[in-house]
Design brief:
The chain is of the alpha/beta class. The protein has a domain of 208 residues: Rossmann fold (3-Layer(aba) Sandwich), CATH 3.40.50. It contains eleven helices and 14 strands. A seven-stranded parallel β-sheet has the order 3-2-1-4-5-6-11, with helices on both faces. Helix 1 crosses helix 6 and helix 3 runs parallel beside helix 4.
């Protein structure tokens, strides 16, 4: 039976689709428009047009499917309600369609560390901690997790909370890479910044592990490199790649908060998704985004293979080869 992947046209989803095809799986992708396949164009997949926000489009997507990898969702939006419409209600709609199908036996939900909130090197975020998301995005993902847990007694459910993910095709870190390439090292506020990272191909291995494993339904796992990184180390690797020294620029918190207010106002007026908001600023000003992925290593045999230096080189080379930098 085929595996259904939502969000396959995006950064993480496209890598998941390619990995599943490489191991001989039949893959069906739910996309909003078959005319905009992006990274999926030319791949041997079945395409179904639909939208998780529109329940009527989902029965045909899940028909005859036994496994679902749900990655689709909003990371930027013009208003808070849009996050919940996609990441929460959309997830609930898909789960209900899966339960009604009678064939889906494994549902994998791509959540985020944003659903759990920050953590430090000495006290990283762990699966058993009480979540404290800082943004509407994080809250909507956490509510999506709850939708999954409510169905865990009727369908095998696995939830992944990846840390910050980077690699080829990523647009999240791209603006910062462009700044560093031009010699600017931005520091939001003052003080050392620590972050858990994961190269996209390592995350994909975690997804495949959840698909294959005999995990307890409702299990939640952080996915990240074994150790967190100081952000200064990330900048050092990037500068070394280009053989340059950067100029550090401190962006005061008040400037960021003002930008967040302006960003929200712009989104409200135009209806366009915005990358900066007051909640996003709260995440940027949080110095420590560290999580503990030891449970995934224990239960899923998850073992990251791409270290920071190798991963950043791979990402930057891809950006350069595709004229993104």
């Amino acid at each position: 039976m085929p595996i259904l992947v939502t969000g396959g046209t995006g950064f993480i989803g496209s890598h998941v689709v390619e990995a599943l095809l490489d191991r001989g799986e039949r893959v069906r992708c739910l996309v909003r428009s078959a005319r905009r396949l992006r990274w999926l164009a030319g791949l041997d997949i079945e395409v179904i047009e639909g939208d998780c926000r529109q329940p009527g489009t989902l029965p045909s997507a899940v028909r005859g499917v036994d496994r679902v990898v749900h990655i689709a969702g909003e990371t930027f939006a013009s208003k808070e309600a849009a996050f919940f419409e996609s990441n929460t209600a959309g997830t609930r709609n898909l789960i209900e369609a899966c339960l009604a199908s009678g064939t889906v036996r494994r549902f994998v939900f791509m959540s985020s560390q944003a659903a759990a909130g920050p953590g430090t090197r000495s006290r990283p975020a762990r699966e058993g901690d009480s979540p404290r998301p800082l943004s509407a995005y994080g809250r909507s993902k956490l509510a999506g997790e709850q939708c999954c847990l409510e169905a865990a007694d009727r369908m095998s459910v696995g939830i992944l909370r990846p840390s910050a993910v980077y690699g080829p095709r990523d647009t999240g870190f791209l603006p910062y890479f462009r700044l560093v390439r031009r010699g600017f090292l931005l520091e939001f506020g003052t003080g050392e910044r620590e972050i858990s990272l994961c190269f996209v191909n390592d995350l994909v291995k975690g997804v495949v592990s959840v698909i294959d494993s005999h995990l307890e339904s409702g299990s939640v796992y952080f996915i990240a490199d074994s150790e967190p990184y100081a952000w200064a180390t990330v900048e050092k690797v990037l500068c070394a790649h280009w053989g340059m020294k950067g100029r550090r620029i401190i962006v005061p918190g008040v400037v960021l908060r003002t930008a967040g207010v302006i960003g929200e106002a712009y989104g409200a007026v135009t209806g366009k998704p915005v990358p900066i908001s007051r909640a996003r600023v709260a995440e940027l000003l949080e110095k420590h985004w560290v999580c503990d992925s030891s449970a995934a290593r224990r239960d899923l045999a998850f073992s990251p293979e791409i270290n920071l230096e190798k991963g950043l080189h791979k990402a930057v080379r891809w950006y350069e080869q595709n004229n993104w930098l």
